[in-house]
Amino acid sequence: MCVSRTYTYELISLETTSSNRDLLDIDIKIKRKSRRELVISGYLDLKYDVQEGDDTEIEWIVYHSSTGSEKDYKLLPMAIRRQSIYSYLNSFYKDFIMNGVGNCSNLWNFQGKAPSPLEKMRYELNDCVLNDDNYPNHLADGFYRIMGNVYGQVEWNIILFVEVMRKY
């Protein structure tokens, strides 16, 4: 028996930062394509090769707030632990993200294992719609801050704010 999702959600904002724009420049935003459709567009300009086995690591941390107040956010146990970028690409990215951005970007798309190196180039996202097929069936109402942190030769972040509302 298939359980349907008990909530709906809206993307509120997406913020990106880089500790060194000479090595990695990033600017990804949410934009309104139509009255009901929000899309993600922008670029990630990687200016060095990322080799398998180097010190590049990634983690995703999730916070929840029932009110949206800054002082109300609490760390949730759902997260992707800090791991090598290649472990991440060969698991979560491949299983949950790659199919969602395959038709709207030139981000890494591969079969088998992620290629090494990840070549320096400008990766573009053009009106990407999040593929939510694998999202949980149940989430608490409120606001979520989802933080992706990348460590290594350059540190960069993606922070996504989402509001979740119960379906009636």
From TrEMBL:
InterPro entries: DUF1091. This is Uncharacterized protein.
